[in-house]
Structures are given as C-alpha cells and as structure tokens.
Write a structure and sequence with these properties.
With 141 residues, this protein is mainly alpha-helical. The protein contains five helices and no strands. Helix 1 packs antiparallel against helix 5, helix 2 packs across helix 3 and helix 2 crosses helix 4.
Length: 141
C-alpha cells in the first residue's frame, strides 16, 4: 500500500511540476486579490487559495487542487508509515511531507506576495519531496 501511494505521489509531483510551468508561462496573477500582502500569513494563504480556486485561470486552479491532493496523500503516507513501524518508510514519509509543505507554503507566498524568491523555494520544496520519495521507494522494495 505504501509503495502504491508513493508512486501516485511521485506522479502527482510530476503533474504538479508541469502544471506549475503552465501557470508560470500563461497565467497572470492580478496585483490585488483576496490574500494579497496579508498582514497575517496563514489567513492570507487561505484567502489566496480560495480566490485561486474560485476565480483563477484553469492552470492555477489545477495547480492548487493538485497541491492539496499532494498534501493529503503525503499525510496519509506518514500515518501508514508510522503504523508500519518501518524506519525507512517513516523517514521517507516525513521528509517527503516536509518538501510538499515547503513547496505549498512558498507557492501560497508567491501567489500573495509575488516574490520570485518564493518561487525558488517552491521549486526547492518540490525537489525535497521528490528525492526522499524516490529513494524511499527504491530502498523499500
């Protein structure tokens, strides 16, 4: 079960990467939308994501939905890894989850604050997710 979900997460990460390139190339995010320059970061993330889901162009909507699915899938893998009591899976799951959370929060930061540095951190988070899931999948065969 863990291997199957990990493959799904790796495929979703690849899809997320490709959709992110579409967003980067073809979606213009307005300078002002709910969540823009929010004084309180977490409420701004929620506002920005809700705006993106309800008013964003299709690639942005798909990017946010895929990100949410990745977070949920990564959280499920952590639970299953802990239940399995296998150290390799626990390490894989936690590091992959951290990468996904890093990418997600920096994606929301980019949406709300428009800083290119957030885009760089989103890409780094993507790599921090792909690498442990791929290594974990290989090590646990």
């Amino acid at each position: 079960m863990l291997r199957t979900i990990t493959v799904v997460i790796l495929l979703l990460l690849a899809i997320q990467f490709l959709i992110g390139m579409l967003v980067n190339l073809f979606v213009t995010i307005p300078n002002s939308h709910p969540g823009t320059k929010a004084a309180e970061y977490f409420s701004g993330v929620v506002q920005g994501d809700v705006w993106a889901l309800t008013h964003g162009q299709l690639p942005l909507v798909l990017h946010v939905i895929t990100g949410i699915l990745l977070f949920l899938g990564a959280s499920i893998v952590i639970g299953l890894a802990i239940a399995s009591r296998r150290r390799a899976w626990i390490v894989t799951a936690v590091l992959g989850w951290l990468g996904i959370v890093t990418a997600g929060f920096n994606g929301a930061s980019f949406l709300n604050y428009g800083e290119n540095f957030s885009s760089l951190l989103m890409a780094i988070g993507f790599l921090l997710a792909v690498i442990p899931y791929a290594i974990g999948f290989y090590v646990t065969r």
